[in-house]
Amino acid sequence: MTTADICEWHSASLVVGAGLLGDLWKKEERGRSLGLYTLISLLGPTLGPLIGAFVTQYSSWRWCFRSLSIFSAVVQVAGLFLIPETFPVLILARQAEKLRQETGNTALHTQWEVAGQTFGQRLRLALERPFVLLFTQPIVQILTLYITYVFGLVYLALSTFPLLWTERYHMSISIGGLHYLALAIGYLLGTQSCARLMDITYRWLTKRAGGNSQPEFRLPMLVPGTLLTAVGLLWYGWSAQYQLHWIMPDLGILLFGAGVKFSFQSIQSYALDVYPTYAASVSAASTFVRSFAGFGFPLFAPYLYQRLGFGWGNSVLALVAVVIGLPAPVLLWVFGPALRARSPYAAGE
Q1: What is the 3-state secondary structure (H, E, C) of the chain?
Q2: Where are the domains of the chain?
Q3: pLDDT tens figures, 316-348
Q4: What is the reported pTM?
Q5: CATH number 3.90.1010.10 is the correct assignment for the domain at 3-84+117-342
């Protein structure tokens, strides 16, 4: 299995998963489901290097790919037979097709079906829609900008671990890999706390608004997410700069991981509420852009830390996170309703 295959499968799960959660859970219940979903997707880059370090040291790097291939094959086969269709548009289209065959009434169709549209035309529309949303929807652009930066920070932080633990703290590859657990614990704590706080805040704001729920009620959790991300970067960077006890950088990366989870869950929940029918397309647009950050950020990480060191390097990254992250919920809170009202994609469920 090649790296391209891994990226392709990873992208498919991210895009399909977001739409599936929007299909299955009510708006007031999506916090916990999204928390579990985003936790699993982000634990891969965290636990993967940890497991891979032990496999490489005590076996062979080839078994990293073999074990991944075996696991992926099991998941694919299980999903093929156990996961049913959840997209309401497609389910209704199938029911309409069944009724047309049973009654002979060709006028029966759903509001999303276009008479005479071929499979190729539908495929082209599906491929074009993520880019249309990305280039025409300010809400998607704002959300994608911040989530891309945060996603890049995750991979940048992961790329610094080998340098920090093996060269500066003089640990073995396997023991250095254990420090990825700090990020995993941060993800876990961020997932559990954000999921509950988001649902509580959403219900409270809805009740305060007289029962009139708004997608913007998902945004408050983005503020603590941004602050935790920035504080975690500063803590991690300066403790690593002065080579304090290994627990100090781990605590910083733990806070960073919790902040990342707060940000991801808040953004994805808001996007699901704004674009319920096109959740998968919005996720595809975001995934397309942020994948470039996951690729590009680790490339300049060595030059950044070589020039500025861990302390000032992470300080710059934390400052940019605050500059992008704090205005985003304010802008969407103020202008989000008007932008949704003007959007043909966000109008109604």
Answers
A1: CCHHHHHHHHHHHHHHHHHHHHHHCCHHHHHHHHHHHHHHHHHHHHHHHHHHHHHHHHCCCHHHHHHHHHHHHHHHHHHHHHCCCCCHHHHHHHHHHHHHHHHCCCCCCCCCCCCCCCHHHHHHHHHHHHHHHHHHCHHHHHHHHHHHHHHHHHHHHHHHHHHHHHHHCCCCHHHHHCCHHHHHHHHHHHHHHHHHHHHHHHHHHHHHCCCCCCHHHHHHHHHHHHHHHHHHHHHHHHHHHCCCCCHHHHHHHHHHHHHHHHHHHHHHHHHHHHCCCCHHHHHHHHHHHHHHHHHHHHHHHHHHHHHHHHHHHHHHHHHHHHHHHCHHHHHHHHHHHHHHHHCCCCCCC
A2: 3-84+117-342
A3: 999 999 999 999 999 999 999 999 988 888 854
A4: 0.77
A5: no
